[in-house]
Amino acid sequence: MSILKTLIPALLFLAGSAIYAEDAAPRPDALFAVYDEIHDALATDRVAGVGEAGSRLVTLAEAAAGARDGAAAEVARAAKKLTGSELEPLRKSFAELSRAMARLATAAGYEGAQLYHCPMVGAYWLQPKTDAAAANPYYGTAMSKCGTRADGID
């Protein structure tokens, strides 16, 4: 009987710890929601909020790092480069972030995003699968529809 008194609380503690550990790492959809905020800003030629969203993405990715084969750590490194208030450097950093997010999507088995490619810039980006048309973050409103769906990154 004494073993049961010790064993049952220990098992309950371990089960609770496992549940907490799973909840502690952000889900991929949380990272993609912030990524999508950044995408939407750049696709509409806005820089306001990009740096702040990048910082939130760093926090989320660092919390998830290690759980997804290093892909989240790669996202954190790329998101840290989303600084400044000039559109073109932010777009260049976004290209690197997009590659990292595509890798994260693959590692996490995330299926809520569609990969797109801009042939003029030679860069990729992700959009929610529910979006009907491309919204190019590299050319913004000047060429918003420039881009095609891609199956993978070259």
General form: globular
Structural class: mainly alpha
Number of domains: 1
Radius of gyration: 19 Å
Strands side by side in the biggest sheet: 2-1-3
Fraction of residues in helices? 55-70%
Strand portion, in percent? 5-15%
Low-pLDDT windows of residues: 4-22
**SS summary, helix count:** 5
> Quaternary state, please?
single chain
Task: Quote the average pLDDT.
Answer: 86
SSE string: HHHHHEEE
| Biggest sheet architecture | 3 strands, antiparallel
Intertermini distance: 62 Å
The number of E-state strands comes to: 3
Description of the molecule:
- By secondary structure, the chain is mainly α.
- It has one domain (27-149).
- 55% of the residues lie in helices and 9% in strands.
- It is built from five helices and three strands.
- Strands 2-1-3 form a three-stranded antiparallel sheet.
- A hairpin with a 4-residue loop joins strand 1 and strand 2 (123-128).
- Helix 2 packs antiparallel against helix 3 (50-64) and helix 2 (28-43) packs antiparallel against helix 5.
- It is globular, with a radius of gyration of 19 Å.
- The N and C termini lie far apart (62 Å).
How are the secondary structure elements laid out?
Layout: H1 2-24, H2 28-43, H3 50-64, H4 71-79, H5 87-108, E1 113-118, E2 123-128, E3 148-149
Descriptors:
154 residues, mainly alpha, three-stranded antiparallel beta sheet, globular
